[in-house]
């Protein structure tokens, strides 16, 4: 029996981001959210004005590969307001990882705005200290200069990075 077959509403949350590329820090937050919610939507933001290292479709495929073991993660892209994405899918909660106090200032403003616009709640999850310095931008910069990022990203992402940067 599933919650839906018994007439119960599934507990849903979204983990949004650009994920260019997904890092072990992102994966840690998604993994933890997947233990708390019945369905976790990973929403890959489309930013038309910003050229990423990976196309949105590539990011979605990489995320699907590295989250497949969780069994309750759905991955798709979105553009526009995150709260609209949430409304369209009946998602009442946003899960965000916080690395440092500096993240909190910005994320608190976003959480308050999102709640004011739509009633969607934001839950903050402190990042595992192992990943407290980690960002996709940092991974791309280190990888671009030939640094070893194998401990910062899942193996599938490392392979994709190496291929993209012409190292295979």
From TrEMBL:
It catalyses: (R)-4'-phosphopantetheine + ATP + H(+) = 3'-dephospho-CoA + diphosphate. Its EC number is 2.7.7.3. It is found in: Cytoplasm. InterPro entries: Cyt_trans-like (IPR004821), PPAT (IPR001980), Rossmann-like_a/b/a_fold (IPR014729). Its cofactor is Mg(2+). Keywords: ATP-binding, Coenzyme A biosynthesis, Cytoplasm, Magnesium, Nucleotide-binding, Nucleotidyltransferase, Transferase. The keyword RNA-binding does not apply. Pathway: Cofactor biosynthesis; coenzyme A biosynthesis; CoA from (R)-pantothenate: step 4/5. Residues 14-141 form the Cytidyltransferase-like domain. Substrate binds at residues 18, 50, 82, 96. ATP binds at residues 18-19, 26, 97-99, 107, 131-137. It comes from the Bacteria. Its main location: cytoplasm. The record marks 26 as: Transition state stabilizer. One of its GO terms (molecular function) is pantetheine-phosphate adenylyltransferase activity. Homohexamer. PANTHER family: PHOSPHOPANTETHEINE ADENYLYLTRANSFERASE. Belongs to the bacterial CoaD family. Reversibly transfers an adenylyl group from ATP to 4'-phosphopantetheine, yielding dephospho-CoA (dPCoA) and pyrophosphate. NCBIfam families: coaD_prev_kdtB, cyt_tran_rel. This is Phosphopantetheine adenylyltransferase. It comes from Streptomyces physcomitrii. The gene is coaD.
């Amino acid at each position: 029996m599933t919650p839906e077959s018994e007439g119960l509403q599934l507990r849903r949350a979204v983990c949004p981001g650009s994920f260019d590329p997904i890092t072990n820090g992102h994966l840690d937050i998604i993994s933890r959210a997947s233990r708390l919610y019945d369905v976790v939507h990973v929403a890959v933001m489309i930013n038309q004005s910003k050229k990423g290292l990976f196309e949105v479709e590539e990011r979605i495929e990489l995320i699907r590969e590295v989250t497949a073991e969780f069994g309750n993660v759905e991955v798709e892209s979105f553009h526009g307001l995150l709260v609209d994405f949430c409304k369209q899918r009946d998602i009442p909660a946003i899960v965000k990882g916080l690395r440092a106090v500096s993240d909190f200032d910005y994320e608190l403003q976003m959480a308050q705005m999102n709640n004011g616009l739509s009633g969607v709640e934001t839950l903050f999850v402190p990042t595992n200290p192992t990943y407290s310095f980690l960002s996709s931008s940092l991974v791309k910069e280190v990888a671009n200069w030939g640094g070893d990022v194998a401990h910062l990203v899942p193996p599938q992402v490392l392979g994709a990075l190496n291929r993209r940067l012409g190292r295979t």
